[in-house]
Structures are given as C-alpha cells and as structure tokens.
Amino acid sequence: MPYERKKGLKEIFLGTKEASPNSENPEYPYGDYFVQFGGEDLDAFTDRIYGAVREIAREDTGETILIVTHGMAMRRFLRAVGYRQDGTGFIGNCGIVQLQYEEDTFEVRKIINPAGTAQNINILGKFCGKRDVERLTSEQLQKKYGIAQADIMVLFGGSILAGGDILAEAIKEKIAKRYVIVGGVGHTTETLRQKVQNEYSQIRTENLSEAEVFSRYISEVYGCQADFLEKDSTNCGNNITYLLELLKENNLACESIILCQDATMQNRMDAGMKKYAPDIKIINFASYRAEVVQKEGRLSYIRPIHGMWDMDRYVQLLMGEIPRLTDDENGYGPKGKDFIAHVEIPEEVKKAFSELKEVYGEKTREADPHYASK
What we know:
It comes from [Ruminococcus] lactaris. The protein is of the alpha/beta class.
C-alpha cells in the first residue's frame, strides 16, 4: 500500500542518495529530518541516527516515525533507536516504517513498533512462565485440585534465587509431602553460584551442583531443608528423567507434583514431565513473574525480583525457548528431537517472537553440547 503521512507525526527519512529528498523536488513529501545512509562506518552512522531521533523526540511529545528504505538496514536502525548493548533504551515512542520506492511512489513493506518491545517480552514471559495457581497455598490447591498437599514439590536448579525463596515458603506452609531439589551443573550453574556468593558471603558455592547451592541457601537463610537432592542432571530433559528415577528408587508415591523452575523454562519443564510421566497431575508454579516496562528511555522490570537475570540475559533465555517449544523438525517436540510432549504455540506468541527478532536478531541461547544427556 502507498505510504501516507499522518498529521501530527514527526518523521525522519533514512535513505540513500538515490531515494532521498533533493533540490529538484522541493515538494518532496517525506521527512522532517533527513539522514543519508552510506559512506561511513556503522558506529558513526548509528550515533547520527540516534542523535537525530533524540533531537526530534526532545521537541515532540508525540510519536516519531523513522522511514527506512532498505530492508538490509532495518535491524541497524532498530538497534540505533531501540535496544542497544550499552543499555540505552527507546527514545520517545519511535515507530519504523520500511518503504520500497517503486514507480514514483513509496510502498509500505513493513511496520515495526519498537515501543511494543516490552509488551512482546511480557507475552513470551507469560507463555513460558506457567503458573497454574495464583498463589502456592493449601487453599488454592484444595480449590483447584481437591488436595491440601501435593505428593512432591520440586525446585529445579536452573531457577534464579527467587525459586529458593518459594521452596522455603512452601516447606514452611507444608504445601507438599516431600521436597526435592534437582540440578547438577548446566548453563545457569555458574551464574547461580556467583549470585549466592555475592549476596551471602558465608555460603561457599565453589564446585557445588545447583541442588547443593540451593540446599545450602535455604538451610542458611531459612533454616529448612529438602528431603532429597538430585545432583547429576545437566539439562531440562534429564532434570525430568533423573527426577523420576529418584522417585522410583526411593519408593515415593507421586500422583501430584508441583514443578518450580525458572520462568523462562517452566513451560518446557511441564512438557518434559508430560512426555515421561503423563499420568502424574502437574501443578506448575514458575519461580517468578517478571513484568517489563519502558521507563525513562530504558527497558526495566516493574518491580525487583530476587536474583533476577539482567535484561539482556532474560530476553536471550526467553527467545531461546520458542524454537525449542515449537513442534517442528528443529524443535524439541515429537516432530523434532522428541525431548518433550507437543506444545501449542499461540499466534500471539509467534507474532511477539517474530517482532522481537526484528529488534534483537537471532538472540537465542544455543544448546551447549557439554550439558547434553549422555
């Protein structure tokens, strides 16, 4: 469709010499501000775009539209005015329209709203971070499942420290009959060790498994302990299979189980349990709920979360989950690697993931072969 200027919107035209305003066409309809693309290194160009947007955003409290003529440069512009590695956030309410010059007119090829990035992160966060009850209480379990206690509650060591807080509270409130912490050494282990060591210097974490770190944490901070530790698993897949072996070896009845994992990986943990133990009643309770907002030009969490990932890592973990949960030849479902049960990805989640890729690129965490199941 042809591009039409909207009244009251500031526009910055980003283009080449071949597709730009010129003295021969004083009535050129596009752009309150022109930045020519090409002939300089990326950093200089990025800074120039950023400066132009900042200048207009300072004068205008409304929307700012950036008009882009080259699809190959789209991500470069997004990084300039949106998410940046140095932590600088969005300026104003910047949208981006990609135009293609054809037959003396500009056709709209793509529209991106970077101001929606926080919303898209939250869509992925809610999808990945399943909670089947609002609060982890006996009353909630009784109301939804007809039980006052679950047979087993499991904390998985891939979680941030907030998971330890939830487990300790659950033990205090007698939410389950038995408590297990699962986790050997995997891709999140060193981060967990450092977080605990930095915040609680009296807890030594060097060379400990995730299960051992969390065990020491709840013992030192809350004075409680889990009944069992599984210390050999290295990924979400054998987190589940080794857990089930532990339950069997110790003759632990398990008709109902509460799974508590990092919110980025909770959905995958649920799908793994459904594959290997479909008859067990699963109660999901992700270790936190994060809400991201755009505040003072930055993406930030609306409230503090104990031990929370920095924003870049959180987004990376979330974006890494969608390809894994997608049931195709590349995913972890039955049509792919067959590690987990089928997961249905809602259209809203697919759209959010696609839009985030425009901003962040392929910012997904690749599976580390060092932690693959043997």
